Amino acid sequence: MRRDNESHDGQPLLHDCLVLSVKVRRTDGQWGTLRTRTLLEYTVALSELYNQCVLEEICTA
């Protein structure tokens, strides 16, 4: 069975991970949470940009 972090031939796929807490302290001193829907949208866009930049670096090399 193939895992998500393996290619079709079983080789490991290069990837980076990031852990982020959505809990934040607001300016009034109270704790709140980030708007996760907006955060997800930006994360997906940034992930695509990052992958494109890595691919360009690999192809250039």
What would you say this structure looks like, in words?
With 61 residues, this protein is mainly alpha-helical. Helix content is 41%, strand content 10%. It has one helix at residues 36-60, and strands at 23-25, 31-33. A two-stranded antiparallel ribbon has the order 1-2. A hairpin with a 5-residue loop joins strand 1 and strand 2 (31-33). The longest helix is centred in the last third of the chain and has 25 residues, at 36-60. The protein is elongated, with a radius of gyration of 17 Å. The protein starts with 22 loop residues before the first strand and ends with a helix. The model has no long low-confidence stretch (mean pLDDT 83).
Key descriptive features of the protein:
61 residues, mainly alpha, elongated
Describe what is shown at a glance.
The protein is mainly α. It is built from 1 helix and 2 strands, in the order E-E-H.
Strand order of the largest sheet: 1-2
Question: What fraction strand?
Answer: 5-15%
Q: Structural class, please?
A: mainly alpha
Give the uncertain stretches in residue-range form. Answer: none
User: How big is the Rg?
Assistant: 17 Å
Mean model confidence by pLDDT: 83
User: Number of DSSP helices?
Assistant: 1
- Share of residues in helices: 40-55%
Annotation, overall tally of beta strands: 2
Order of secondary-structure elements: EEH
Shape, per Cα inertia axes: elongated
Q: Could you describe the largest sheet, including whether it forms a barrel? A: 2 strands, antiparallel
End-to-end Cα distance, whole Å, is 33 Å
Topology:
Blueprint: E1 23-25, E2 31-33, H1 36-60
Antiparallel strand pairs: 1-2
